[in-house]
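> forwarded from #structure-qc
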């Protein structure tokens, strides 16, 4: 893939800049004179009802010697515009060109450095299949709580057989919509620790469309069948899953979005070189957990990257 000239401009995050990348948007940290020369590059991929606002992760990466980029895929965050349906896909393949474009762009900017991908939740599901089923130009893959199964597996199970039919007849039909108490918990104006644009990461939740759900479940079936990823993979997840409910006393100490038992069960089948680590008291996005938990995740992830790239 040829790389167009990137037109960088200031980002909504202070100290960052963005460039259009086809239908996606590439984001990068603006380095300072005290930054060490990078030993590698990391490309971040967001999850569902999510976008890149994780400045602290990029700063941590820079301190550890990694150039950090992120991609807001088509119809996501910086790349979303009315009347597009945010995050919509008919297949995980819909986002593969965005991942390829992002990695190709950073390789052109850092031609001599290894490139890894840090992919969260649904982004982890998309990235794992992209890396397994294409000649993805990656040296390593980090999956942060990948979306291999829902935290509440019984949700909609009685009508699961209807999803393929609805997806074929009315793919944009909403089949589920509920508030994201997890997102509400994270918000600084609700007592949490994080600031984000609530039109790009919505506390009221994002409707789940039939086409999107069928695409996600089809991809999860391919994960269950096993992959043959040729690159080293690091998978991190919380110790427990629980309900995404304001009455859950452990809302800030467990994953309320995905099934961590499924992650631990399925991750060893991703390839021949997989490391799986569990982080007690972590929330769904490990990088947004409490400071001590977040620090353990950073230490484990970056130490692993140091050894494999």
């Amino acid at each position: 893939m040829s790389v167009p000239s990137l037109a960088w401009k200031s980002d909504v995050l202070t100290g960052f800049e963005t460039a259009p990348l086809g239908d996606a948007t590439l984001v990068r940290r603006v380095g300072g004179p005290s930054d060490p020369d990078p030993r590698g590059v990391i490309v971040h991929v967001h999850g569902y009802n999510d976008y890149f606002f994780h400045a602290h992760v990029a700063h941590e990466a820079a301190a550890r010697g990694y150039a950090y980029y992120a991609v807001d895929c088509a119809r996501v965050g910086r790349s979303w515009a009315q009347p597009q349906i945010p995050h919509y896909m008919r297949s995980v393949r819909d986002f593969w060109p965005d991942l390829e474009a992002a990695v190709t762009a950073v390789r052109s900017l850092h031609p001599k450095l290894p490139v890894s991908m840090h992919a969260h939740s649904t982004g982890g599901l998309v990235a794992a299949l992209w890396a397994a089923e294409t000649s993805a130009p990656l040296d390593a893959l980090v999956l942060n709580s990948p979306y291999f199964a829902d935290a509440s597996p019984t949700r909609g199970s009685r009508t699961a057989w209807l999803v393929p039919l609805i997806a074929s007849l009315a793919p944009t039909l909403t089949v589920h919509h509920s508030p994201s108490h997890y997102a509400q918990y994270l918000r600084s104006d609700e007592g949490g620790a994080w600031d984000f644009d609530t039109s790009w990461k919505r506390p009221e939740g994002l409707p789940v469309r039939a086409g999107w759900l069928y695409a996600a479940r089809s991809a999860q079936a391919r994960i269950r069948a096993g992959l043959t990823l040729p690159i080293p993979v690091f998978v991190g997840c919380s110790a427990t899953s629980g309900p995404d409910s304001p009455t859950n006393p452990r809302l800030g100490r467990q994953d309320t979005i995905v099934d961590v038992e499924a992650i631990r069960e399925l991750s060893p089948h991703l390839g021949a070189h997989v490391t799986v680590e569990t982080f007690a008291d972590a929330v769904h996005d490990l990088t947004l957990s409490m400071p001590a938990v977040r620090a353990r995740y950073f230490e484990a992830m970056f130490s692993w990257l140091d050894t494999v790239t």
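QC bot note: The longest helix spans residues 291-308. Residues 224 and 265 are 9 Å apart (CA to CA).
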